[in-house]
């Protein structure tokens, strides 16, 4: 098992470059299934375990997929298979995003039931409601969801009960090849939705209104491959902005798009963090003292749930009482228990947590409970007294490329080692002196 070891107390400075967005690339690769002609070339693809998983899903569905130099090339022109088995869906819930494209292309899709995960039960009823409205018959049998349509999907008017990101994406993909027009109301407005719509349009599709709450998709007979570059990852960018802020550092986050992060920028400014929008990125300067604020996660453009745990790390160091309310997922506070090992006092009250800072964070052995929790624990470790050792890095690798390496390049005292070879594999000169302290 691997672990990341971080020793707190270093201000970060320098430039860090943001990767392509994980939450964009997964639906975009799923959408390449829609192309019955030509190859799709997807650029700025991060080397994340989730990307390898979605590529495997496509290969399993009879596509040819190449991944080199941050570019994924997909040829989906052969007849497609229709089943995404449990082994992939278990690894990554976003595998369910192939369902809309498969159903539209082949008239059938079989996807293993995704089940819950550490952050909540995560049902997909809104995805299925959309497919049914377009004429599909949906069954759940033997642990699989099966959707089938006798002829072609038909455009429909669909209202989502909640602006679900995945449901908006899956329905958009299905509607792209349906007969007639689909109007999707109360759709998600995340930048990743706009990125997916841009790809579908580049493939010959007709999607308007992505990024607003009403999306109109006029179905076309056929789509072709396209060349598309993924937008920068606003959550990775936000995580490095918090890293700069928490250490009182000065970091340029290259590639960060401020318009994608207005709620985060507003909250960081309220806390006293200096943020300057520059050409091709944002510069973040952390203050001597951080101010406490309250945060409520919401669908975009509200505060992103995917930044909730990282903000919790930052608010632990703020002066005064802060409250975070999580409204998107019902169980996204698993990291609180791990933070408590670091000598901090966090109270959970229903869907909110309350903190009274600044905390005297102490290094500890902690385990990542999910992807963003992994990042948050490392962020806390950057300002902890002594060493923090973070395990369960499979979560981190789903969403961050070389996280420890990027932090080290900004001056953090951090290494990644095999657990049993903690000392011999340590590469940091600074840390190796008393790594077992
Ligand atoms: C790969 C990807 O892009 N993942 C992101 C996507 O996940 P994902 O697409 O799964 O998130 P959704 O927006 O669909 O889910 C938000 C909430 O709606 C509920 N829900 C969703 C669909 C449904 O049919 N029924 C239902 O009840 C979910 O359980 C959850 O409580 O958006 C989330 C919310 O911004 C982010 O945290 C994830 O990082
Ligand atoms: C929850 C997340 O991702 P996923 O939906 O892929 O689990 C995330 O990116 O924080």
UniProtKB/TrEMBL annotation:
The EC number(s) this enzyme carries: 2.5.1.7
Entry binding sites for phosphoenolpyruvate: 22-23
PTM-bearing positions, type 2-(S-cysteinyl)pyruvic acid O-phosphothioketal: 117
GO molecular function: UDP-N-acetylglucosamine 1-carboxyvinyltransferase activity
Compartments in which it is found: Cytoplasm
GO biological process, alphabetically ordered: cell division; cell wall organization; peptidoglycan biosynthetic process; regulation of cell shape; UDP-N-acetylgalactosamine biosynthetic process
Catalytic reaction(s) noted: phosphoenolpyruvate + UDP-N-acetyl-alpha-D-glucosamine = UDP-N-acetyl-3-O-(1-carboxyvinyl)-alpha-D-glucosamine + phosphate
Binding-site positions, UDP-N-acetyl-alpha-D-glucosamine: 93, 122-126, 306, 328
Cell division as UniProt keyword: yes
Active site (record annotation): 117
GO cellular component terms, A-Z: cytoplasm
Function in brief: Cell wall formation. Adds enolpyruvyl to UDP-N-acetylglucosamine.
Name of the protein in its database record: UDP-N-acetylglucosamine 1-carboxyvinyltransferase
Organism annotation: Pseudobacillus wudalianchiensis
Source organism phylogeny: Bacteria, Bacillati, Bacillota, Bacilli, Bacillales
Gene: murA
